[in-house]
Amino acid sequence: MSARKIASTAYRGLLIAFFALVIAHAALDLGHPVWWDFLPLLLAYVVLVVAHRWGGAPDSPRAAREPVEVEPPVTGRWTALNSPANHTPSHHTHAYGQTFAIDVVAEPGPGSRPAFRALWPLARRNADFPAFGAPLHAVADATVVRATDRARDHLSRNSLPALAYLMILEANVRDLLGAGRILGNHLVLDLGDGVHAVYAHLRRGSLTVREGDRVHAGQVLAQVGNSGNSTEPHLHFQLMDGPDADTARGIPFTWRGTGVPRNNEVFDIPARQAGARA
Predict the structure, then answer these.
(1) pLDDT, tens digit, for every residue of 79-110?
(2) Where does the record locate the signal sequence feature (predicted)?
């Protein structure tokens, strides 16, 4: 096990211990001083400081390198969100290899994607979003190293109450449980030369490949879903320097023929481009 994996596992375990002690103290009146409950929290941050000092922290930025050019993972008309073309880290964290990640949502026409609402409806069905079920393509010839699609697709979180629930409770619980709960159903491809591509929030049961399979650029791999830490059906895509999002660091990308779309930029990918060769 790598130093970064040990650090992230220890940090997460200590946080869980802290919350467990606080709850147990309140419910059972354990009799020890309250400050004892905070010892795991203190140790968790000691782990972070030591990990950063020794360069093992999974949320430290990766050394700058040239973007890796790959094929687009989608076809059709899409809009970019949380783009690294606007700022990095694009998702406001280096954790889980997300430094240069991007989110894309399908918008085949004006008004085709439900708008965010202040109060009502609290949530929407996934079928209301045009991205749900859209095919995802291999961005290069690669080997499948991780593939999971058993998590459920939950309702959208595109109202203020639903978003508050996601940010305050759901996201923090998922973070404690590890990268797999954040990514939901996901796929990791080994592109070679230490580059791995991640497709996250996939639709339950939609994978067409298994770990160990060899795939070619443009091949359909899965469908867009709404699993994991997701507000609505969309694709979260990123490149990173290892197969484990708990310990990997982000790598910049550019999509052949498209580049890196900026936030709220609408872009079209012709079907022929997804399988194009350099």
Answers:
(1) 999 999 999 898 888 888 999 999 999 988 88
(2) none
Segments forming the whole domain that contains residue 38:
3-53
Distance CA(99)–CA(226), nearest Å, equals 21
Looking at every residue in the chain, the average pLDDT score rounds to: 84
Q: Does residue 24 lie in a domain region?
A: yes
Phi, then psi, of 167 in degrees rounded to 5 = -70, -40
Confidence bin at 121 (pLDDT 50/70/90):
confident
Do 42 and 75 share a domain, yes or no?
no
Quote the number of domains for the chain: 2
Give CA–CA dist 73/197, Å, rounded. Answer: 10
For the beta carbon of residue 149, count every other beta carbon within 10 angstroms.
20
Q: Are residues 198 and 229 in the same domain?
A: yes
Which three-class secondary structure state does DSSP give residue 150? Answer: coil
